[in-house]
Design goal:
Strand 15 (202-206) and strand 16 (209-215) form a beta hairpin. The protein is mostly beta strands. The protein has two helices and 18 strands.
Length: 248
């Protein structure tokens, strides 16, 4: 009698484990993705590709599985035709072709419907395109300029600060000093609000490194831009450094 009870318990446990294993395998999970979730890439990708782990006898349903990519403002940046990659005979891959991307943090949202059991798994991940150069050549007379922090995709507090690196003599390339001799001075842009800082507003924090307080910003996604701007037009006269951040 006791042996029979033990065997019954073992049988129940075995069936439970088999059921749990079936549930795990029935739902698609990301096996790999390009760009990788949470990554920062130097070059804007032309496509997002996700490979899913499925049970051996399962595949993604092309009719109901979806993928979409949006920017930090919620605007779609894929061509709207993404889905299961029909060139993958195993039907375990989804792709989305992208429009030309700028420096920003992007969100990939996916829904994977398994066939034949019709189980649904869905999720999202982010990737960031790092600060992109404007494509404009650096004039020989202009020193390099680089944003050190915050990093692209970072979460920051308000008021927002930026740390940048330059070999420039800022006493000659900030407002109120000898800017007319050079023809350009430092410009900072936070969420479309352009400022032309004075030297007294900039704090040296290391060799060729400086800290600048950009001011307050509402909670949400914002872009920081730093560049040498023309004294008269205030337009960039060299590459523009950009990072997108989230203000908490």
């Amino acid at each position: 009698m006791r042996l029979a009870k033990i065997m019954c318990v073992i049988a129940i446990v075995a069936v439970s484990l088999m059921g749990a294993r079936t549930i795990v395998l029935a739902h698609a999970k990301i096996q790999s993705a390009d760009p990788k979730p949470g990554s920062t890439v130097a070059k804007a990708p032309a496509m997002v590709k996700i490979v899913f782990a499925l049970a051996p006898d399962e595949s993604l349903d092309p009719k109901t599985s979806t993928i979409a990519v949006s920017d930090s403002h919620g605007r779609r940046v894929d061509d709207g035709k993404g889905g299961v990659d029909l060139n993958d005979m195993d039907r375990k891959t989804m792709i989305a072709m992208l429009k030309p991307l700028t420096a920003d943090t992007y969100t990939v949202r996916w829904k994977a419907v398994s066939s034949p059991d019709r189980d649904v798994a869905q999720g999202s991940f982010k990737f960031t395109v790092a600060a992109a150069m404007s494509g404009m050549p650096m004039p020989a007379s202009l020193p390099p300029l680089k944003i050190i922090s915050p990093a692209a995709g970072a979460t920051v507090a308000s008021p927002v600060e930026v740390v940048f690196e330059t070999t420039a003599d800022l006493s000659k390339m900030t407002v109120g000093e000898m800017t007319r001799m050079h023809g350009a001075h430092l410009h900072a842009d936070l969420a479309g609000r352009v400022t032309m800082p004075q030297m007294k507003q900039i704090k040296m924090v290391g060799e060729h490194r400086y800290q600048l307080l950009l001011g307050t910003a509402a909670a949400g996604r914002h872009t920081i831009r730093l560049y040498w701007g023309d004294n008269k037009t205030h337009k960039p006269v060299g590459p523009v450094q950009m990072v997108s951040v989230t203000v908490k």
